[in-house]
Write a structure and sequence with these properties.
By secondary structure, the protein is mainly beta. It is 6% helix and 63% strand. The two termini are 57 Å apart.
Length: 812
């Protein structure tokens, strides 16, 4: 019954045929004219010419905000000529109005100051959903219905080569990338980053750039770079309001206000979302001893709910063409309430029940994450010289209260009178700051480019965990020293880098560089009055050879040494008491892992398609990974450990084909095979294995106001002790625009066939374990969006402008 409103709305959308399609001449071309300082150019003369009909001309003049619009245009191929006193002539060519695309917004058209240079001619190219150039990928989120009602984390999973592992961590070609927002690095720990991405509305994202071949300042990132570019808005005041709701139990509202004038741009985003997830699972473990074996089974169900308010203010100001700055203040909050029920059962080798119990856990808490950053940009007098200074500060306040009740049962599942009650109060405070400088310079020969930079990143985590148990018959809570903890973790990273790029021939370049990093780590275990610290240097060289043939074929050969440092999630020694028979905790003795990465990328671009193939080999040293081990008492410990070196073999491909301007298809896949040492395989029974990630994305736009988009992923993950069986996800989006694209209705169908299932197999020296987890992800979401966009108006013109228009009157 819950799908009836969705089907009714879908039928209504298909039935609607009113709007621009019913007009005989529905074409619209609009835009904003700005100068190099981002100031509106009022009174510019815009002439519209038909490419096929040389007698057809129409003219208009930009208003005080630099806006112009041509309406009631017939289908055809058009050219625009823009002239204004003191500026060079601008010509925009090849604008094709047709049934499936009859409304073009050229956004910002930048005029250059008058000089002796020739007129500027721009061939207009329509923006597809996914683009690829030089091995990098651009996902134009603003063109996709999948962004409506979703968050940044969900949207990233629909981008080619991007996947989320079983713990929810984002990867690119199997490795962890660096996340940027508007070209600025996000310096957050894993939990802060997850909260940030899950609270960031997808509707505020303009595009997502995946850089498999990143610039020098990020050349040593293992998984490359993901740059999330937010929307800036048009000149003047604009706004957007969206509300959404889904059958899974989600709802939310978010809005945007933007203001742009001259060199000033202000963007404000705010919203709140509610999410609800339900699921169930089981685990089956066989414990193998010298003369016998037994079994331990669990069955569980859960329901998680969360509210996520968020707000973000971004200010860009260009003082003059050489000096500009950006400031961002943001805050996101996660208020959660989770409930779970688990049944535990022990069986002997004859499958006779030995012990039964039920455990109920209630969790509630809050994660508050404010942050701010500042960026200053200086552009030198000579082209190619840029200095950028970054400053970032963030704090995080996390509170989590958990209550445990476990009841023991007879074999017939009736209570035997024995029970246990515990409670945990976890308070953590995280803070950090980052200072970064980047300097780029092109030498006078225009073939040599220098890049230098430095950064200092410091983070501190304070964790205070109080665990108590209910003591009978005194009926009081007493502290559990074993399960309580109080510690502080500090990490500081100082980096210096330098690189040189040399163009040795047309389309051929070599880049070589070096990063030198000093890492300082300190642990203060207050409960045990212990301290531990370590400081070490790491040299990270990189090399890149790039060859292009007529901007059609691209070849890249790259080497880089990378480092992966354990974070607070891997180091935290606190024992997770969620499952008393499978205890999880971190390892303060973990060492960082370094890797030698060798990559070969080959790509071909064409108007109809793009093809890319990547091959890679990685030699990873001091690998740290999560390991499960069986203890003599039948419990398992799950912690992080450094193991021996590992070899990784990679192959990946990302491709797209344009069947027409209406229909486009994009397919990507990556496979990584991990090979462990003979010692690890013999001693710990580690297994060589492969991980596979794939993404299929199709986009169909039969009309300018209709848009269909589908995303389908297949994933399989391997680990040293086993693998996670295949899982899939699907997102189908249908979008319809009304009232000159101001009002937008979007319907998303998420996982209609197969909901999210993870099935994991783990093999140890004396046990084998199978776990299953099902999450209710099927969802029918409806999103309503209204864009508050001012209509370009014909302002009053001086007499000279009126004389110009007389010469441009239609002569058709």
């Amino acid at each position: 019954m819950r799908t009836i409103p969705f089907l009714f709305m879908l039928l209504l959308l298909f039935h609607s045929t009113i709007g621009q399609q019913s007009q005989s001449d529905p074409g619209i071309i609009a835009g904003n004219i700005l100068d190099s300082k981002q100031a509106a150019v009022a009174g510019a003369t815009i002439e519209l010419l038909s490419v096929r009909d040389t007698l057809y001309r129409r003219g208009t003049i930009s208003d005080k905000n630099g806006e112009f619009v041509f309406q009631n245009l017939s289908f055809g191929l058009y050219r625009i000529r823009i002239t204004s006193m003191g500026f060079n002539l601008m010509i925009i060519d090849s604008i094709s109005l047709r049934a499936e695309r009859f409304d073009f917004n050229l956004n910002d058209v930048i005029l250059k100051m008058a000089s002796d240079e020739l007129s500027q001619v721009v061939v207009y190219a329509e923006k597809p959903l996914i683009q690829s150039k030089e091995g990098n990928i651009t996902f134009n989120a603003s063109e996709s219905p999948l962004s409506a009602g979703s968050n940044a984390s969900d949207l990233l999973k629909n981008v080619p080569l991007v996947a989320a592992d079983p713990e929810g961590k984002l990867t690119v070609r199997g490795k962890e990338p660096k996340i940027l927002i508007d070209d600025k690095p996000v310096e957050l720990n894993a939990q802060q980053l997850q909260d940030f991405l899950e609270s960031m509305p997808g509707s505020m994202i303009e595009r997502i750039e995946v850089m498999t071949n990143p610039p020098p300042q990020y050349a040593n990132e293992p998984g490359g770079v993901i740059n999330i570019v937010t929307k800036r808005g048009k000149v003047g005041r604009t706004g957007r309001l969206s509300i959404y709701g889904g059958t899974r139990g989600e709802t939310g509202i978010n809005g945007n206000f933007s203001y742009r004038k001259k060199g000033l741009s202000i963007n404000f985003n705010a919203g709140i979302g509610y999410n609800e997830f339900q699921g169930n699972g089981y685990s089956r473990r066989e414990n193998i001893y010298v003369d016998s074996s037994n079994f331990f089974n669990t069955d569980n169900n859960y329901k998680n709910r969360s509210y996520r308010p968020n707000a973000r203010v971004s200010i860009d100001y260009e003082i003059n063409p050489r000096h500009s700055f950006n400031a961002v203040i943001q805050i996101n909050d996660n208020n959660f309430k989770n409930n779970s029920n688990t049944q535990f059962a022990n069986f002997d080798r004859f499958k006779a029940v030995g012990r039964l119990s039920r455990r109920t856990i209630k969790s509630e808490g809050n994660n508050l994450n404010p942050a701010m950053n500042f960026t200053y940009t200086y552009k030198g007098k000579k082209p190619g010289e840029t200095l950028r200074l970054f400053g970032n500060a963030n704090v995080s306040f996390n509170e989590s209260d958990r209550y445990f009740f476990q009841e023991f049962l007879y074999s017939d599942f009736t209570p035997n009178g024995i029970d246990s009650t515990q409670q945990q109060f976890n308070n953590s405070r995280n803070n950090g700051y980052n200072l970064r400088a980047a300097y780029d310079k092109m030498l006078d020969n225009k073939h040599t480019f220098l890049a230098a930079g430095a950064y200092y990143n410091r983070s501190t985590s304070n964790v205070d965990l109080l665990s108590e148990y209910w003591k009978k018959p005194e009926n009081i809570f007493l502290k559990s020293d074993l399960l309580s903890n109080d510690f502080r973790f500090r990490q500081a990273i100082a980096n210096l880098r330098f690189s040189v790029k040399q163009i040795i021939a047309r389309g051929t370049s070599i880049t070589i560089g070096l990063n030198a990093e000093q890492t300082s780590v300190q642990f203060d275990l207050f409960q045990f009055k212990q301290k531990a610290s370590n400081t070490y240097w790491t040299l990270l060289p990189f090399f890149n050879f790039n060859k292009q043939w007529e901007e059609v074929i691209n070849l890249t050969v790259a080497y880089r040494r990378t480092i992966r440092r354990p974070g607070i999630g891997q180091l935290n020694p606190t024992i997770d008491y969620t499952d008393p028979y499978n205890l999880r905790f971190g390892n303060t003795e973990l060492k960082p892992s370094t890797s030698h990465n060798f990559d070969l990328l080959l790509g071909r671009n064409h108007d109809k398609y793009y093809l890319n193939l990547g091959l890679g080999f990685n030699l990873v040293q001091d690998v740290f990974t999560q390991i499960r081990s069986l203890q003599p008492d039948g419990k398992t410990f799950i912690t992080w450990e450094n193991i021996d070196d590992r070899q990784e073999f990679e192959i990946s491909s990302w491709n797209g084909y344009n069947f027409s301007k209406k229909l486009r298809l994009n397919v990507s896949a990556s496979y990584s095979y991990n090979k462990y040492s003979a010692f690890d395989k013999l001693t710990y029974r580690y297994r060589d294995g492969g991980s596979f990630n794939s993404n299929i994305n199709a986009n169909y736009a039969p009309k300018d106001v209709w848009n269909f988009n589908s995303g389908l992923t297949f994933n399989r993950f391997a680990n040293p002790q086993g693998f996670v069986r295949w899982n899939t996800s699907m997102n189908l989006g249908l979008q319809r625009k009304f009232f000159q694209k101001r009002f937008i209705i979007t319907v998303n169908v998420i996982d209609p066939i197969q909901q999210q299932v993870n099935k994991t197999f783990t093999y140890g020296t004396n046990f084998q374990h199978e776990s299953y987890n099902f999450t209710q992800t099927r969802n029918y979401r409806l999103t309503l969006t209204y864009n508050f966009i001012p209509v370009a108006k014909k302002g009053s013109t001086v007499e000279a402008d009126k004389q110009k228009l007389k010469k441009l009157m239609p002569t058709k």
